[in-house]
Structures are given as structure tokens and as C-alpha cells.
Design brief:
This protein is α+β, with helices and mostly antiparallel strands. It has three domains: 112 residues, Phosphorylase Kinase, domain 1 (2-Layer Sandwich), CATH 3.30.200.20; 210 residues, Transferase(Phosphotransferase), domain 1 (Orthogonal Bundle); 92 residues, no CATH class. Helices cover 29% and strands 20% of the residues. The chain contains twelve helices and 22 strands. The strands form seven sheets. It has a six-stranded antiparallel β-sheet with strand order 1-2-3-4-6-5, covered by helices on one side. Strands 15-18-21-22 form a four-stranded antiparallel β-sheet, with no helix packed on it. A three-stranded antiparallel β-sheet has the order 7-9-10. It binds adenosine-5'-triphosphate (ATP). Adenosine-5'-triphosphate binds next to strand 2, strand 4 and strand 6. Pfam families: Pkinase.
Length: 474
């Protein structure tokens, strides 16, 4: 997430909200600080139980977004940014997008600066494209990197999302230099042809139309072509050691140059180091308005890159058959991950499958109800005031009109037959936060026969198949 209007944002060294190596955060132990942005600090972490020798998952990245002491408007922005990250992360998985494992709210009464911070647990990358550009991108890697960004964008756009903050800082790299788009704090799902974002972004990557876009009640309207413009700037940077095609000493001056170009008063001037094929590709991405840019979708750009590689063998600076094969794979993967197959690709990207069909009547597991209120946990009389509700619809607000008549109490054990990872976000009395819900069976004769328990109401995490997304109750 980036805000152009936050001068003086604190750095990691002068903040009291920085976690030392060895700090426990949820089920994770911080191993080191990776870096800080304006609103968040990112750490490498390992699973807490790995210390005991268990074979847990590899290192992750924890993005910690403190909310303490912020003005209400800033706190709302952070919550909104986290909501977008979680929304996208739980619904649009792909190998070219950094994976989100879970999110929660930190309870740290002894560290007021961190109490209430939002934590995103992400797949860990080894660096960013910005670092690589600063160090000098090896010629052979340039084409494959751009192809990887196109792959990620093609999947995002095909799934109906706009990234809205594409820049080299948000293109992370895996161990093998594979691209992982990240930072979905401004990402928006399209409603029809547009999505809406807060009036934020990184000036150097904003398309001309964003500079004049009116701010409505929902925010500023954006379309996938905004990401394509940003891609044009990134392509130019990759081939010109970080140079912008728009000259000026500051982002605002470069923004003025963008306007001159968009209004036809100045030509597009690219650095002579950008090879002809990439120059043409970047020029199409940098078409001056949405209508001229719209035909150049991420998918069509990817197909052009693959064709170029096939035609030249060395067109991306990479002439080996291995790399040509990689570009073909990119096109294939994009085709497979198009709109129709989005759900399948999303599951595959998380390393799982959509699981066996759910068989109602044959529960695959159980969950023990947990009441975050200690006073309720200590009594066994099933007092009405300590009962908990189960939702009718996990996609709607968890309010009194959305609960079944059957109540449950702390320590009740319920049969659960599937889980929904991306339902309504629920925050409990201990500030644990989750979008996960379990479908549980109610006693025989209950109507309806099943209801939904939010994951924050249990400590159990049984291995369950994914539930079909409920629609009937909406
Ligand atoms: N999943 C990750 N794995 C490894 N490093 C990461 C990961 N996510 C972010 N980082 C790194 O952590 C640092 C801070 O990232 P963060 O997203 O908080 O801020 P930023 O992108 O640098 O700035 P801002 O989003 O405020 O413009 C950056 O150097 C970024 O490359």
C-alpha cells in the first residue's frame, strides 16, 4: 500500500513497534526484520512448533500493520487495506501472486504500540524487482521477468481484479527468480468494467486518466488498463536500469510530462537501451488513454512475448530451449487460469485441490466450541448469556437476524463436514480475526440441518474439504 501524502512516516529504527528476533506472533516466531513500508513492517518468521523439531512449513513473511495511536481515518485505511489483501489473497491464488496463509489481529497488552496490529502471514520472497533493478537485471532474466508479471496480471484481470499499485517494489521474487506480485492493499474487484480504490497510489505509475479521475463516494474508478500502464513503466525500467520514459526531477514533474504526452503535446521518449520489441510492447502499454490501451491485455502481451521468443529464440535475451518452454508454459497457464477455471487454479496455486465432494451425513471432522470470554469458559451451567450463535449464512453479517435458533456453548463438540475459507470476516472478543467458517451439523430434527461456526469460535483446525460457496441463503 502506498500513500503519496504521508510525509515524515516513521522508519523502523525510530519506532517502538518493531519486533525483535525470537518474538512470538500467533503461531510464528520472528527470525529477522525484512523491511518497512509507510504503514507496515515485514518480518521473516518460522512456525513456533518448528523449534520443537516438528516438520512445519518453511519460513513465511509476517506483514505487521499497527493500528494503535492512529487517527481514525488512518486506522480505517489500514483496516481497508488489510481487508483488500485478505479478500484477494483468500480468493485469487496463483503461483505468480504472493500467497496469503492467514491473517489475525495481534493481542499484545504489554506492547501498546503493537496491540491490535493486523498481521498478514504470507509466502516469503527473497527480494524485489526494485532491488534487482538497482543491482542490474541480468540481460537473460529481463524477458522472463516481464513474462512473469504479465502472467500474474493476466490471472488477476481474468479473475476480475485490478492490482492498482503495480511497481517494482511490489514485484517480489522467489528463490528461482520467479515473479510473485504482492501488496494487494489497493487491489479492487471489478463491478462491471470498473473497480474503486482509495485516492492513493504511486505517482510514477499512475496512468494519465488517474490524475484527473473524480473522487466519488466509493473512491476513484480504475480499470485493468491502469495496471497495463504501470506495466509499461516497469518494462522501461527493467531495460533501462530503472529509468522512467517521462523526464522530470520529481514524481510530480514526471506526472506533468505524462500529461503533456497524453494530450499529444509531447512524444513518448524511451531510452535507447530498450530493445525494439520491448520498446513496441511498452509503447502499447503506455497508450495515452484507456480506449487505446484496452486492446493490450496482459494475456495478449504474454502471447506476443511467447511468439517473439519462438521467432527469435533469443528475443528476451534468453535463447535456450528451456526458456522458450517456460514462455509457452506461461501462456498455457494463463489460458488454464482464465475466468472459467479461476476456482480450480486458485486451489491448485495453494498447493491443494478442491477436495472430495462434500457428503452431508458423513462428517469429516469435529470442532470444539471455544468462547473467548473467560467467565463463560469457567461455568458449566449453559447460561443463556454464555451461549453462542451459529450463522445461517457465512457470507452475510454475523448479526442476530443471521443466526439459527440452536445455540452452542463453550466446549460443545460439533460435527463439521467442510470449511469455507473466505466468508464474512469475524473478529472475536480476543481480537482474533478470520474469514474461515466451518459448516456444522445440528441435532437431528433441527431446521436448517446445518449452520456455520466462525473459525474464531474454535481452536480446532480439522482437515476438511472446502465447502461449495453457499448461495441459497443469500
Ligand atoms: N512476502 C514477502 N516476502 C519477502 N519480503 C517482503 C514480502 N512482502 C514485503 N516484503 C518486503 O518488505 C519490505 C516492506 O514491505 P511493505 O509492503 O511493508 O512496504 P513497501 O511495499 O516497501 O512500501 P509501501 O507499501 O508502504 O509503499 C519491502 O522491502 C518488501 O520488498
Amino acid at each position: 500500500m502506498t500513500s503519496p501524502d504521508r510525509p515524515g512516516a516513521p522508519t523502523a529504527s525510530d519506532r517502538t513497534d518493531v519486533l525483535a528476533a525470537g518474538s512470538e506472533v500467533g503461531d510464528w516466531v520472528v527470525t529477522r526484520l525484512i523491511g518497512s513500508g509507510g504503514w507496515s513492517t515485514v518480518y521473516a518468521a518460522r512456525p513456533a512448533d518448528a523449534a520443537a523439531g516438528s516438520s512445519g512449513p518453511a519460513e513465511v513473511a509476517l506483514k505487521v500493520m499497527p493500528t494503535a495511536g492512529l487517527a481514525p481515518r488512518q486506522a480505517r485505511r489500514i483496516m481497508e487495506s488489510a481487508r483488500r489483501e485478505v479478500d484477494l489473497g483468500s480468493r485469487v491464488g496463483h503461483p505468480r501472486l504472493i500467497g496469503l496463509r492467514e491473517s489475525f489481529v495481534l493481542t499484545a497488552p504489554d506492547r501498546p504500540a503493537l496491540d491490535g496490529a493486523i498481521v498478514l502471514v504470507m509466502e516469503r520472497a527473497v527480494g524485489s524487482l526494485r532491488e534487482l533493478i538497482d543491482a542490474g537485471v541480468p540481460e537473460a532474466d529481463r524477458g522472463p521477468l516481464i513474462a512473469g508479471i504479465c502472467e500474474g496480471l493476466a490471472h488477476l484481470h481474468g479473475s476480475g481484479w485490478v492490482h492498482a499499485d503495480l511497481k517494482p517494489e511490489n514485484v517480489l521474487l522467489g528463490e528461482d527468480r520467479s515473479v510473485k506480485l504482492s501488496d494487494f492493499g489497493l487491489a479492487t474487484e471489478l463491478t462491471g468494467t470498473h473497480g474503486y480504490v482509495p485516492p492513493m497510489g504511486t505517482l510514477d505509475y499512475l496512468p494519465p486518466e488517474r490524475w484527473r479521475a473524480p473522487l466519488g463516494e466509493l473512491g476513484v474508478r480504475v480499470r485493468p488498463s491502469a495496471d497495463i500502464w504501470a506495466l509499461g513503466i516497469v518494462i522501461h525500467e527493467v531495460f533501462s536500469a530503472g529509468g522512467s520514459p517521462f523526464s522530470g526531477a520529481t514524481p510530480v514533474a514526471r506526472g506533468a510530462a505524462v500529461q503533456e504526452y497524453a494530450q499529444g503535446r509531447a512524444p513518448l521518449r524511451m531510452d535507447h537501451t530498450v530493445p525494439p520489441f520491448w520498446r513496441a510492447l511498452a509503447a502499447d502499454c503506455l497508450a495515452p488513454n484507456h480506449a487505446a490501451r484496452a486492446p493490450h491485455t496482459a494475456e495478449s502481451l504474454l502471447a506476443r512475448i511467447a511468439a517473439h521468443q519462438d521467432a527469435t529464440g533469443a528475443g528476451t535475451g534468453a535463447g535456450s530451449g528451456r526458456r522458450r518452454g517456460r514462455a509457452r508454459t506461461a501462456v498455457l497457464a494463463t489460458a488454464l487460469c482464465g475466468v472459467a477455471a479461476a476456482a480450480l487454479c486458485s486451489d491448485a496455486a495453494r498447493g491443494g485441490s478442491s477436495g472430495p465432494p462434500v457428503r452431508v451425513g458423513a462428517p469429516a471432522g469435529t470442532v470444539r466450541v471455544f468462547n473467548a470470554e473467560r467467565s463463560c469458559r469457567e461455568r458449566a451451567d449453559r447460561a443463556a448469556g454464555c451461549s453462542l450463535g451459529l450463522a445461517v449464512d457465512p457470507l452475510r453479517a454475523y448479526t442476530a437476524d443471521n443466526v439459527v435458533p440452536t445455540r452452542v456453548w463453550h466446549d460443545d463438540v460439533l460435527a463439521a463436514d467442510c470449511e469455507l475459507p473466505d466468508g464474512q470476516p469475524i473478529i472475536d472478543e480476543e481480537a482474533r480475526w478470520s474469514t474461515r467458517w466451518f459448516r456444522v451439523r445440528l441435532p437431528a430434527g433441527s431446521a436448517p440441518p446445518t449452520a456455520w461456526l466462525p473459525a474464531v469460535r474454535t481452536k480446532d483446525r480439522p482437515a476438511l474439504p472446502r465447502c461449495p460457496r453457499p448461495t441459497a441463503a443469500r
